[in-house]
Specification:
Largest sheet: 8 strands, parallel
Order of helices and strands: EHEHHHEHEHEEHEHEHHH
Number of helices: 11
Shape: globular
Distance between the termini: 38 Å
Strand order of the largest sheet: 2-1-3-8-7-4-5-6
Length: 390
């Protein structure tokens, strides 16, 4: 087993660009990479540009007719077929869409292969985590579901138990759908309640098909949930189901859109709490999966203040050289931010809330508290199916 982690990066992933008015601005990827470099983290990991996912790999999750529709829209965007979710407001078609989407997918698949084969213990693809794409359609800014493809590739290579933990503010619906009937994959999603946010799925009662009961876990949190509630909910559900499942590989999705500054959602989580969950995921991988960890990006639309710092923390943790929250952001990076965006970049790698405090579930719960209600609903729905005490 190689001691070094792998950081998947190809500058061409910044071509995943839906246009100047779309919230998924690829500058968030470029600025993350530059901040990673500014901290020297690229020297702590093996930087790898994996090849794009080929058609046989894409078809591990996606239908052939959908892949053909993406290729057609990529060649002629004005002819995009809306029946496949292409050419919509969320997923506008653009030239080269198939190629760059396959490239991002290839980075996640490459990360999974490296971890499974022992070339790396940890692998990060912060350009990935496009968890809404369905087998037969685009959805929610996502063309190909790189997270599901990485998991499918792990199964193809012989993995028998893969756990997927998704802490994006939006439900990881596409990954859940891809493995709804497969007991080899445990999907856990911690997200804003579907009553108030896209994609309106991820109810606690969604627990997997009859052939895989208890393989889908959904913690649907009320709008306004902050650090203490978010961390409490994570620790009240995720470690217990991971301990029960005992995955061979842990795949995690770290959408930064839970943040209180994110313009598209309604949670109130800080950068410091996001970092705390990243550390928790790293520790779960070591405790239950022999350290095998594939970490992905995801959503995040505060593209200057939040996303680059959050994912740089993720890279640092995976590299074994975590960035202290109190660390000043390098001035060279702040100058680049201003040159690219005419915005002033943040000054420190914290929102000033470190260390983040929260109370554990074992200390008792309040049935009138809305976060505790969400935890209770998730535990009652899935824990008995897994033979656990709700």
């Amino acid at each position: 087993m190689s001691g070094r982690g792998q950081l998947m990066w190809d500058e061409a992933v910044t071509g995943y660009d839906f246009g100047p008015d779309h919230p998924m601005d690829p500058v968030r990827l470029a600025l993350t990479w530059r901040l990673v470099q500014a901290f020297g983290l690229d020297r702590e990991m093996e930087v790898v540009a994996a090849k794009p996912a080929g058609e046989s790999t894409l078809r591990l999750v996606h239908r052939e007719d959908y892949v053909e529709a993406v290729k057609a829209a990529s060649a002629e965007p004005r002819a995009a077929d809306g029946a496949y979710g292409l050419g919509t407001m969320d997923d506008p078609a653009f030239a080269g869409m198939h190629e760059v989407s396959a490239l991002i997918a290839g980075q996640s698949v490459g990360a999974a292969e490296a971890v499974w084969r022992g070339d790396a213990l940890h692998a990060v693809n912060f350009s990935g985590g496009l968890h809404h794409a369905m087998p037969g359609g685009a959805s929610g800014f996502c063309i190909y579901n790189d997270a599901a493809l990485a998991i499918a590739r792990l199964l193809e290579l012989g993995a028998e138990r893969v756990a997927y933990v998704d802490v994006d503010v939006h439900h990881g619906d596409g990954v859940q759908a891809a493995f709804w009937e497969d007991p080899r994959v445990l999907t856990v999603s911690l997200h804003e309640h579907p009553r108030t946010l896209f994609p309106q799925t991820g109810w606690p009662e969604e627990t997997g098909a009859e052939s895989a009961e208890g393989s889908a876990v959904n913690v649907a949190l009320p709008a306004g949930t902050g650090d203490a509630g978010w961390l409490r909910a994570f620790h009240a559900v995720v470690p217990e189901v991971i301990a029960d499942f005992r995955p061979q590989v842990l795949v995690t999705q770290h959408g930064a859109d839970t943040h209180f500054e994110d313009p598209l959602a309604h949670l109130a989580v800080s950068l410091d709490a996001q970092r705390a969950v990243q550390v928790a995921c790293h520790d779960l991988a070591h405790e239950y999966a022999d350290g095998r960890w594939v970490a992905l990006g995801g959503g995040g639309y505060a593209v200057v203040d939040v996303v680059p710092r959050s994912w740089t923390h993720l890279v640092g943790i995976a590299a074994g050289r975590p960035v202290s929250p109190e660390t000043l952001v390098p001035e060279s990076w702040r100058q680049e931010v201003f040159a690219r965006t005419r915005q002033l970049g943040p000054g420190r790698m914290t929102d000033g809330r470190w260390p983040v405090s929260w109370s554990g579930w074992e200390e008792g719960y309040d049935p009138a508290d809305r976060v505790d209600q969400a935890v209770i609903a998730a535990r009652r729905a899935v824990f008995p199916l897994r033979g656990l005490l709700a």
